[in-house]
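Narrative of activities, Objective 1.

The group set out to show that a structural description can be obtained from nothing but a protein's sequence at a throughput compatible with the screening campaign. Below is one input-output pair from the validation batch, recorded exactly as produced.
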Amino acid sequence: MANNIPFQEMGKTVRILSSSTANTVAVTADSPCNQVRIHNGTATDVFIRLSTSSDANAAIPLANTPAYGMALHNNSTHVFTAPRVANVEGGYTFYVSVISSANANVFVTPGEGL
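Output recorded for this entry:
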């Protein structure tokens, strides 16, 4: 369980290409964890969605129209609490969906901490 410790990776980092079409990718941790570190090192904002479903795509909200998309500003890194699901194989998988108005690379690392 996370607390006020520095972020500790607990799985492989996944690079997700973001574009104007939602791209949803599985992220698997090596052991149970509650956080995920997401880095957007590009000049464009991206919208993300964390889910337990492979078909839960992120969307860019339009004016006065809510959508499942949380803004991750350009050149920023944040730690979020992620859903935790156990696989039959013993890994722990959740899905990250990204979408943006221009191409961007988003890096996602499962782990624990701030």
